[in-house]
């Protein structure tokens, strides 16, 4: 089922996941958004849980990372401080990326709930991640090839 939202000159169309016939278009929109945000590898329902990439928060380096046993930055040599600063700069970039991806995953999870028909929301109960939700919806609403062929034939008769 398609839904449209209009504001001024922009019309936004989305697909509500109600039945198997909606699956391909609905998933295309979710996958496209996730890919643009660099998070599809963290929620792709075609990936097994063992192979799914995990979003892991980077660990902030400590002075001991460049000089064993040193707990304070002021105790580092000038060269060690430069190395430590390089490590901090790298960590900061990785942390910003982590936060952006975490935010994008949260938005995707919210979008999944908002674009899933009320009659299918029970499939999401007890699950909390975008991956778990997409996997559950896929298991119940993704048409297999034979069923998809029958539905398309019926649709275009």
UniProtKB/TrEMBL annotation:
This is Uncharacterized protein. It comes from Clathrospora elynae.
